[in-house]
Design brief:
The complex is a heterotrimer.
Chain A: E1 2-13, E2 16-27, E3 31-35, H1 42-49, E4 57-60, E5 63-66, E6 69-70, E7 87-90, H2 104-116, H3 120-133, H4 139-143, H5 152-164, E8 170-174, H6 182-199, E9 202-207, H7 210-216, E10 219-224, E11 227-233, H8 234-239, H9 244-251, E12 299-300, E13 306-307
Parallel strand pairs in A: 3-9, 3-10, 7-8, 8-9
Antiparallel strand pairs in A: 1-2, 1-4, 1-5, 5-6, 10-11, 11-13, 12-13
Helix pairs in contact in A: 2-3, 5-6
Chain B: H1 2-28, H2 43-53, H3 59-71, H4 86-121, H5 126-140, H6 143-161, H7 178-204, H8 207-214, H9 219-237, H10 239-256, H11 262-272, H12 275-303, H13 305-313
Helix pairs in contact in B: 1-3, 1-12, 4-5, 4-7, 4-10, 4-12, 5-7, 6-7, 6-10, 7-9, 7-10, 10-11, 10-12, 11-12, 12-13
Chain C: H1 32-54, E1 75-80, E2 97-101, E3 106-109, E4 119-125, E5 133-138, E6 142-145, E7 154-160, E8 166-172, E9 177-179, H2 180-185, E10 199-202, H3 216-252, H4 254-269, H5 272-282, H6 292-319, H7 322-329, H8 334-370, H9 382-391, H10 398-428
Parallel strand pairs in C: 1-9
Antiparallel strand pairs in C: 1-10, 2-3, 3-6, 4-5, 4-7, 7-8
Classes of the chains: A alpha/beta, B mainly alpha, C alpha+beta.
Chain lengths: 324, 314, 434
């Protein structure tokens, strides 16, 4: 049974299609990474899952559900019962994502009071226990301190604490390590993985860093120009990418013990304000075909992967042999 | 924190000393002896003044005397109102100005933050446009014109109602305060709404508001605990200049509404060249404004934890 | 649906078509509000500078016969010799008769009904009910009304003073008139005694007159000269001085910089309006004496620090730029560096500061003139006109509203101009200018 189902999610902001077709799913306890260049719509997808799409946006989806229950329409009041309680989010930059004028303790307790209806004193105890669980030293003193008194890594732990405070079913982490030092990155990643195992939470891990993704994710969905172009298990993706874009993305990652030359992807992502014809990646694709001027559907690829590429069409010459 | 307060207070005292000195030498640079002006003055007052200020003594000694008197809080005797001490004038009339100023400031602060918040929440929609238009109108019209127009409106209203709904001028009851206070606070309110709108817009687009909403915080809790407090901070730093604006704006409003405040007295003293009153009230107002700015600085430190703690350690 | 195999063939790029690439125009286009504000500001300056050439009334000429009037066209006025009493006809009156009716005097006479010994005369605005104002009580059979007559319909009512019984009523509209004395005073008549024409032409007052009978339009233009002169010259001076001082402080640095900034700190701490007033007294100019120059000097002394700080910061930032170093290395002298390299870079910021200082200065002048510490008679300014106008606010609001509107429009125009210029420099400087 899939916990999260996103099928053909489309979002228009002021008439511009920011998300064109986002489709993926998330099993119970699974960690799925959402990767792509900046501007490909990863964070926007997360915002849609929290009901926080911009006010002037129009959202449409064939299916958008959590544990079999459809998410409320954007901007509805019912979202209060979802946000923080069933779906929670960790933000990219912990320095700016915490209220600078309230103490850490006040912000943590607030979540407990709001969602678990604890009394102030109990909420405080719960908050301290949580901070200790997240191995923040001197938690009791730390509760009285303000965000600017914390280091980046510590703040990200606080952000994680805020997110997991009410044991959400779905945890979204939007590039949680990008703003951190490399040494701290590893700790935070380990903590996230540990919490996820412990609480049985499903994790949607947004990143542009394939190295990080390889460490934490069970499966990966790749986004390009507002649509998911490939979804595959982590191993399958790193063994053989099904979509040319994924291949290019992998080739662009520098590797330490490799003689392979790092290759940047030529060209730049399409301007979504202009109407798109055919495959969005075609202009940058090294394996472009004549048919690529038509938009490809999501097609089943090797090893259970799904890719938005005509190469996996059953009538493509390469697929003839496998066809029954 | 303590050292921060002490440092601010010290610089405040230094500024007040500078103001007093500048006032003293400015008044002594006035051509001619202030006592030989062709003002009607009884020999008694003249003798008293000469004795008190030692006008025959060299300037340095006079300056020492002046500072000494000032330290003891003695501003001397009025030139035009015989035997009336400047201290008494201040003591009698400043509370009136203070009440009016505080009312105006409260109206400006609450109104400004409220209007700014509304404008920011309805950005580029009609409430925003209405507020911004009102702001532009209010900062382009001089205070004395607004005061005059307000009086006209009151007269019309009273005529329409047939009774005295609001007094046109004067002082004494609660109903006398509201219109002058509103008029006095209007310019500052406009300025603060502009500021409040800008800072609220910044807060609204900030990560921590998005993060708070993602934790299910909404409605009043979101507004009061997360948005307002952060948006008010930049407005509070402008309190010092706002108080200065309300104080000097009070001169005119008190004049037009016939309110017996110190501001009206100051303008009268200026028009009658009542030197001791001018000197005394200038130093008093100067000290008052400097003190206010220092207090605002300190209170800002109390509100914003970032300043409270970093300044305290530094 | 089958897809033909050739569709999966590698894509062949089409023949390159010479496409004209449209460059996005980088040219700055001024916003509509900026154009409007600039036009209004320019129109105001032109009105004030050239208006008096077109409208040649003396702003301080007092028309005693036309005090606090609304807009009036040019009109012919009967010349009335006020000192000579009107001749009464010999034939007896049959009712309440109007012998002469003009704004200098209304001459009435009436017959003597039997049994009435004392009369009382009332005058009322004909549009309103009632008898109105009691003018006179006595035994004569004629009366000359000289009490603040206007060109509107009056109703005179004559009653028996003892019984209060109504005797007669009549209506009349006085024609415009001017006394010989005033006509001579205004130069409309020769001073010499002798026969004079029956009518003279009175000039028009498009906006009416003030409480002393002076032409409002002429006064608005004369007052605008003072207001805008202060509003433009004072900022020009204090920004010029401040930027010179601040620029030198930033460029030279060291002890001079320290001294300049300490001084700026102290001057900023002074309560501005209080010291404006104090300085004016120091210049030995009492209330009631004119003092545009002291006003400007006082503003210069108190307002320079903000632009000095602004320019110092800019110069400090510029000084460390490589192009200044390279200029110095190639042997360019300090004055030339300041003139050719520093000035062009700070000029846009100065322009913005200048356009924001103008409304500030106009406001300051208006405030001081309003409390009687600015421009005083015989010259005037918009603030001084407001001070005059507020005294007659309840009966004659136009005398306050016109100068108030001029101040507001000028301030608004220059504020919007400043906003627009700031946006422009922000866009050009890539946000480095603050």
């Amino acid at each position: 049974m899939n916990l999260l189902e996103v099928d053909q999610l489309r979002l228009d902001i002021a008439g511009v299609p920011a998300l064109r077709d986002v489709s993926f799913s998330l099993r119970d306890g699974e960690c799925r990474a959402l990767v792509g260049e900046s501007g490909s719509g990863k964070s926007l997808t997360a915002m849609c899952l929290l009901g926080l799409a911009p006010a002037n946006a129009v959202l449409a989806a064939r299916r958008l559900s959590l544990a079999g229950e459809a998410l409320p329409p954007q901007g509805r009041r019912d979202w209060r019962l979802w946000r923080g309680r069933r779906i929670a989010m960790i933000f990219q930059n912990p320095m700016t994502a915490l209220n600078p004028t309230q103490s850490i303790g006040a912000q943590l307790s607030e979540s407990f009071c709001l969602h678990r209806q604890l009394r102030k004193r109990d909420a405080r105890h719960a908050a301290i226990a949580l901070l200790e669980r997240l191995s923040i030293p001197r938690a009791e003193q730390r509760m009285r301190q303000y965000p600017f008194e914390f280091s980046g890594g510590m703040l990200q732990r606080v952000m994680i604490a805020l997110a997991v405070a009410c044991r959400p079913q779905l945890l979204i982490a939007d590039e949680p390590t990008t703003a951190l030092d490399v040494t701290v990155q590893a700790e935070v990643l380990a903590l996230l993985a540990e919490l996820q195992r412990e609480q049985g939470t499903s994790l949607l891990f947004i990143s542009h860093d394939l190295g990080v993704v390889a460490r934490i994710a069970d499966s990966v969905s790749v986004m390009y120009a507002g649509e998911t172009v490939e979804s595959a298990s982590c191993e399958a993706l790193f063994r053989a990418a099904a979509h040319p874009y994924t291949e290019a993305l992998r080739a662009a990652v520098p590797r330490l013990h490799s003689t392979e030359i790092m290759r940047a992807i030529p060209g730049s992502p399409p301007d979504l304000r202009q109407p798109l014809h055919g495959c969005a990646f075609a202009p940058r694709c090294g394996q472009r075909m004549a048919i690529c001027e038509e938009a490809p559907p999501l097609l089943a690829a090797a090893e259970g992967a799904i890719a938005r590429c005509w190469r996996w069409h059953p009538e493509h010459p390469l697929q003839w042999r496998k066809a029954p | 924190m303590l050292s921060f307060i002490v440092r601010r207070l010290l610089s405040g005292v230094l500024t007040i000393w500078f103001i007093a000195t500048a006032t003293f030498f400015a008044m002594h640079a006035v051509p001619g002896d202030p006592l030989t002006q062709d003002k009607a003055m009884s020999p008694a007052v003249r003798a008293q003044l000469e004795a008190r200020y030692g006008l025959d003594k060299p300037l340095g000694e006079q300056y020492q005397l002046f500072l000494g008197n000032m330290l003891r809080g003695d501003f001397g005797i009025s030139f035009t109102q015989e035997n009336r001490r400047v201290n008494d004038i201040i003591r009698e009339h400043f509370p009136v100005s203070a009440v009016l100023g505080l009312a105006a400031l409260a109206i400006a602060l609450v109104g400004g933050v409220a209007a700014g918040s509304v404008a920011a929440h309805f950005r580029n929609r009609w409430p925003d446009r209405v507020v911004m238009f009102a702001v532009i109108a209010a900062i382009s019209v001089p205070g004395f014109v607004i005061a005059g127009l307000a009086q006209m409106v009151i007269v019309q209203l009273n005529q329409l109602a047939g009774t005295t709904l609001l007094p046109v001028a004067g002082w004494g009851s609660a109903s006398h305060i509201w219109v002058p206070a509103l008029v006095l606070g209007l310019g500052t309110m406009a300025y603060l709404s502009r500021l409040g709108r800008a800072s609220m817009l910044e807060v609204l687009s900030s990560d921590y508001i998005l993060a708070a909403r993602s934790r299910g915080i909404s409605g009043g809790r979101l507004f009061w605990r997360h948005q307002l407090r952060n948006a008010v901070l930049p407005v509070v730093t402008e309190l010092g200049p706002s108080i200065a604006a309300v104080t000097t704006g009070g001169f005119v409003v008190e004049l037009i509404f016939a309110i017996p405040g110190l501001g009206r007295y100051f303008v009268q003293a200026v028009q009658q060249l009542d030197y001791t009153v001018i000197m005394g009230t200038t130093v008093f107002y100067g000290a008052f404004l400097v003190l206010v700015v220092v207090l605002v600085d300190i209170s800002y430190g109390l509100i914003d934890p970032r300043i409270r703690l970093t300044q305290g350690r530094g | 649906m089958a897809i033909p195999v050739f569709r999966f063939a590698p894509w062949q790029p089409p023949e390159p078509v010479q496409a004209s690439v449209q460059q996005p125009s980088a040219q700055w286009r001024p916003s509509l509000s900026l154009i409007a504000a600039g036009t209004v500001a320019l129109a105001m300056l032109l009105l004030v500078a050239l208006g008096p050439l077109l409208w040649q009334q003396d702003p301080s000429q007092q028309w005693l016969s036309q005090i606090s009037r609304g807009p009036t066209p040019a009109l012919a006025a009967r010349v009335v010799d006020g000192e000579r009493a009107a001749r009464l006809p010999i034939s007896p009156a049959r009712r309440l008769e109007v012998l002469e009716s003009n704004t200098e005097r209304v001459q009435l006479r009436w017959p003597a009904p039997s049994g009435v010994t004392r009369y009382r005369l009332y005058r009322a605005d004909a549009r309103q009910p009632g008898r109105g104002l009691p003018l006179w009580q006595g035994r004569e059979l004629s009366y000359e009304d000289r009490l603040q007559l206007r060109r509107k319909l009056y109703r005179y009512t004559l009653v028996d003073a003892d019984s209060g019984l109504l005797l007669f009523a009549t209506e009349t509209r006085p024609e415009p008139a001017i006394s010989v004395f005033e006509a001579q005073l205004q130069g409309l008549l020769a001073v010499a005694d002798g026969p004079h024409p029956n009518y003279v032409m009175l000039p028009a007052h498009p906006l009416g007159t003030d409480a002393l009978g002076r032409d409002l339009l002429a006064r608005l233009m004369a007052g605008g000269r003072s207001s805008l002169f202060v509003g433009i010259v004072a900022p020009l001076l204090f920004i010029g001085f401040g930027s010179l001082f601040g620029g030198l402080a930033g460029y030279i640095g060291g002890g001079f910089d320290q001294f300049a900034m300490r001084l700026a700190d102290f001057v900023v701490a002074l309560p501005f309006l209080l010291f404006m007033i104090l300085l004016r007294i120091v210049f030995g100019i009492g209330p009631g004496e004119n003092g545009i120059m002291p006003l400007i000097v006082a503003m210069l002394l108190l307002s320079w620090p903000s632009s000095a700080r602004l320019i110092r910061g800019q110069v400090l930032a510029l000084r460390s730029q490589p192009f200044i170093d390279s200029a110095r290395l190639s042997g360019v002298g300090t004055p030339r560096i300041l003139w050719r390299h520093i000035l062009p870079n700070v000029l846009p910021i100065l322009l913005v500061a200048f356009s924001f200082a103008i409304p500030q200065a106009i406001f300051t002048e208006a405030f001081l003139s309003f409390i009687g510490m600015g421009v005083s008679p015989p010259s005037t300014s918009w603030g001084a006109m407001c001070n005059d106008g507020i005294k007659t606010l309840l009966s004659q609001p136009r005398q306050l509203l016109w100068p108030a509107a001029m101040i507001s429009i000028a301030v608004l125009a220059f504020n919007i101009l400043g906003d627009g210029l700031r946006d422009l420099t922000d866009r050009r400087g890539g946000g480095q200018g603050h």
